[in-house]
């Protein structure tokens, strides 16, 4: 349980660092100004950090009872070996899960706020906030199953890409990504 708790603290922090570095890198483009002078350095550090802490490492923590850093390193190395780095970088599962949580929370806040305004206007703000948080968290718990399933599928494919059980979806998508980059 300690590895899961430590990973649950480490992974979001590293994700924010990586996201910030990607944003600075995208904002800087090919500009060579002082403000963006460290963009390449930040991007390199963020690319290296993902090897030490990524959410796909949780699969190895659960299956092999490894420590989160070692599990993340092993998982990222498997992704490199299988040629899945671009696929993993373009995965929108976590964004979809987050946005679906926000949408569910917003619907709950709208319904709860409307009910509160009709019944007792003094508590409308509190009801909206509590309804949003309840809807968001309930949806995120439900979507965690979907996200974990997709992560486990990627890790299982990376462990044995030649297996006939996986079909042709991942190799076809990797080829499509490679064509779009050329």
UniProtKB/TrEMBL annotation:
It is found in: Cell membrane; Membrane. Pfam families: Choline_transpo (PF04515). One of its GO terms (cellular component) is plasma membrane. Keywords: Membrane, Signal, Transmembrane, Transmembrane helix. It is a multi-pass membrane protein. Residues 1-23 form the signal peptide. InterPro entries: Choline_transptr-like (IPR007603). Its main location: membrane. GO terms for molecular function: transmembrane transporter activity. Belongs to the CTL (choline transporter-like) family. Choline transporter. This is Choline transporter-like protein. It comes from Salvia divinorum. The lineage of its organism: Eukaryota, Viridiplantae, Streptophyta, Embryophyta, Tracheophyta.
